[in-house]
Design brief:
Elements lengths: L1 E7 L6 H15 L5 E4 L9 H4 L14 H6 L8 E3 L7 H5 L5 E4 L2 E3 L3 E6 L2 E6 L22 H4 L5 H7 L8 E4 L12 H7 L3 H6 L6 H10 L3 E4 L6 E6 L5 E6 L10 E7 L13 E2 L1 H9 L28 H10 L11 E2 L24 H10 L4 H8 L11 E2 L3 H7 L12 H10 L8 H4 L12 H4 L22 H10 L25 E3 L37
Parallel strand pairs: 1-2, 2-3, 3-5, 7-8, 8-9, 9-11
Antiparallel strand pairs: 1-12, 4-5, 6-7, 6-13, 10-11, 12-16, 14-15
Length: about 550
């Protein structure tokens, strides 16, 4: 059995346009899309206070349409999962470090996360890579200054370290950044024609994320999806063991841009396939989170993960006994509860509030995260950072429990995502009402991170470059260099390629891979026609926008 999964690049808050397009494709192609994946810059701004927490120039601050899905005015018509990028309401996403529902039917994977849906295992890492923040802890919380407003969405080593503990059976991996080196395995000449400023970084092998390259070579997933660079690019990365990774990056949601693509993904575990598409926690990932809880840091200075040669455990790939013990903690039920809670008042376009008078909000503790941490007996980094710095733990007075499974089902009977006739709902309610294990105060139970040497100051850390990632703390990683013949045929053999929306077809099978049904569009509206990119070596020259030059520069605001 296969799932039809729509993959979207940078959403930039345009949920109405994206969902309208998804529904238009379903009607036009007479297909049903089971899942929407967004690869960052989601912009889940609930109100104007959230908008103040985004690290973008003021002229680009736009509330967009997410607030309609947060308030309940609209319901997402397709189950949606996403990772964070660098254009985010970081205060909201920081409330959900391990993931959670940001609105009914819209699920965030957290700083890093792995979930299961119908036998397909999807993992992701949020944010972008900056070497000067990579080794730091999660010390930021709202209200942010101009520095922490950016550092809060920079990925941290603990998230990469945790993902590397996974056994290499993840079907799909998501990142906002591209893994470094993937440009060697696609139509690099075409990419440079469209993005001339990338040439120097590509030639010097600096385009993309080092940690994502490390993950790519460690986990070797069949699929890897990214965004961030505002262009479409596909590649096929071979691995030494005969496996390969199909890489696809997509554009941002704008007219005549290639930002959405529909794929057929095989459900690996046929026994787990159900008529209802529901998200489940990944047992191995939960166990890794539990085993590595003591490695959490809230310091603004550098720390290190344990490595080979030390006296402490450094391999946290769980044993079967550890996973079985964790499964009992969840009472053998890994379904992600439908426990979305509104904790702030949604934006009201008729309120007449002067945006210039709006301030950043306080940091709030989210009930979803508290429930998850209590069940797993781990710590919330945001809560810990606030406690350790003597801040009050703010809990919202605006708590509006969204309990209307009936309303979601009535809106979406066609997908039957939240079918109330499903007898398993009773089991879920019992699980949610089960008493959680009592926990001691966070400050008293969290072991101190075991630093390998005296940490440098925050100022010193700002000079950290890639050379600081010593081989004692990471493997020496580099994508294999394709030979000339392999490189010249790479884009032609890759099944994810341009296809006219009006005539979908099954593309050729990649050796060792699956057939991929692909539907692509180039517009944001229902009536937009697709823009087909020529695949020869002479694509139309696109005027390079000056603001794109800073995407990988020191400033992250673009």
């Amino acid at each position: 059995m296969k799932m039809k999964i729509a993959v979207e690049g940078c959403a930039h808050g345009e949920l109405e346009k994206i969902y309208d397009l998804v529904e238009s494709i379903q009607l036009r192609e007479k297909i049903k899309i089971d899942l929407l994946i967004c690869c960052g810059d989601f912009q889940s701004t609930r109100n104007l206070e959230d908008l103040q927490c985004m690290a973008v120039p003021k002229k680009h601050l736009d509330i967009c349409t997410f607030y309609k899905y947060y308030s309940g005015e609209k319901i997402a018509p397709v189950l949606t999962i996403f990772i964070g990028g660098n254009h985010e309401a970081s205060n909201y996403l920081q409330e959900l470090p391990y993931g959670g529902w940001v609105a009914p039917n819209i699920y965030y994977l957290g700083y890093a996360g792995v979930i299961n849906i119908n036998g397909i295992r999807i993992g992701g890492i949020s944010g972008i890579y900056k070497g000067h923040d990579y080794l730091k802890g999660r010390f930021e919380f709202c209200p942010f200054n101009e520095s922490t407003k950016r550092s809060v969405y920079h990925i941290r080593q603990i998230d990469v370290f945790r993902l590397k503990q996974l056994t290499p059976k993840v079907d799909i991996l998501l990142s906002h950044d591209w893994p470094r080196g993937v440009t060697n395995f696609g139509n690099k000449k075409q990419l440079v024609r469209f993005k001339p400023a990338f040439k120097e970084e590509i030639d010097e092998n600096k385009l993309g994320s080092l940690p994502c390259e490390d993950l790519l070579m460690t986990l070797k997933p069949p699929y890897w999806f990214s965004a961030h660079l505002h262009c479409k690019f596909s590649a096929l990365i071979p691995h030494e063991d005969g496996r390969s990774t199909k890489f696809l990056a997509l554009d941002k949601c704008l007219p005549k841009r290639r930002f959405l693509q529909v794929l057929d993904i095989e459900c690996r575990d046929e026994e787990s396939v159900k008529s209802n598409y529901e998200l489940c926690y990944d047992l191995e990932w939960l166990t890794i989170l539990y085993l590595t809880n003591h490695l959490i840091s809230i310091r603004g200075s550098n720390g290190y993960m344990p490595g080979d040669g030390g006296c402490e455990r450094f391999n946290f790939t769980p044993t079967e006994e550890e996973k079985e013990s964790l499964l009992k903690r969840f009472q053998n039920n890994l379904r992600i509860p439908l426990n979305f809670v509104r904790i702030v008042e949604p934006y009201n376009p008729t309120s007449g509030i002067d945006f210039d008078l709006v301030q950043q909000p306080k940091a709030f503790i989210n009930p979803q995260t508290t429930e998850f941490c209590d069940r797993l007996n781990i710590d919330d980094p945001l809560r810990l950072a606030m406690l350790m710095t003597g801040q009050d733990l703010n809990t919202s007075n605006y708590v509006d429990q969204f309990t209307s499974n009936d309303s979601i089902s009535s809106e979406r009977n066609d997908n039957a995502l939240l079918d109330d006739n499903n007898s398993s709902n009773d089991d879920e309610q019992e699980t949610l009402e089960a008493p959680f294990q009592n926990r001691a105060p966070l400050a008293s139970v969290l072991p101190k991170p075991k630093w390998r040497h005296d940490s440098t100051t925050t100022d010193d850390a700002s000079t950290l470059d890639d050379s600081s990632l010593s081989t004692s703390n990471r493997s020496i990683f580099s994508l294999p260099t394709p030979n000339k013949q392999q490189n010249s045929n790479m884009s032609d053999s890759f099944a994810i390629d341009e296809l006219n929306l009006s005539s979908p077809k099954v593309l050729p099978t990649i050796p060792g891979g699956e057939d991929v049904l692909k539907v692509e569009t180039g517009g944001c509206g229902k009536d937009k026609q697709p823009e087909v990119l020529e695949t020869d070596d002479k694509p139309p020259i696109k005027k390079f926008k000056r603001r794109n030059q800073a995407i990988y520069a020191k400033e992250d605001s673009d």
